[in-house]
Amino acid sequence: MRLFLSSYRFGAHVDRFVDLAGGRGPIAVIANAADAWPPRARESAVVSDVGPLRRLGFTPSEVDLRDYVGRPDRLADALSEFSSVWVRGGNTFVLRAQFSRSGADEVLGELIRGDALMYAGYSAGACVMAPSLTGLDAADDPGEVEPTCGIDPRWDGLGFVDFALVPHCSPAADGTPDAANPGMEAARMIEACRSTGVPYRMLTDDQAIVVASDATTLL
User: Fold this and answer.
1) The pLDDT value given to residue 23
2) Which strands make up the sheet holding 26-30, listed edge to edge?
3) Which of 47, 50, 193, 194 could be disulfide-bonded to 200 (CB atoms 3.0-4.6 Å)?
4) Is residue 153 within 8 Å of 189, Cβ to Cβ?
């Protein structure tokens, strides 16, 4: 199992990302966390992620989960063409709903556990890997799920890590998250996690968490 979970894109660890991917090659881009955005904004979001991946030598292609609603077998066939997947930020609840509607939660789970695919996600793409989305409503609006996806929001994550991720934390002088002043949205998420007893880890935009060979490492 290989996971690269960051606050913002590669953080300060692009070399580790490339190494974890096993080198450059085809990479699927999942941008469904942006599905509640206006079409032009969503399109720009895809372009903004495809460009950096291409400059690194990858061959990115969008896999839009809306094309696979109720067709998990077709999604599995599509993802089998890639050795890595890149899941961008946006609304974590919308992303979780689209995972559920397309069967991506099960399909990705099988591919990741079998080490057939490296999963890289940032912001919402990282947060959805927690066991629970409790506290994320301090930053993301679950009310966007029903008009965008036609289903109620889900509060369970995919459970590939056993803690919640709090992205976009303000850095202290040493580059680690500033526990005294993490940032407004991060502070609300932290308070929600504390009040419900959910373990969490804070990430600045330079940091990432790597899960590989059953070891979890904070970079």
Assistant:
1) 82
2) 59-62, 26-30, 84-87, 118-122, 2-6, 208-212, 215-218
3) 193
4) no
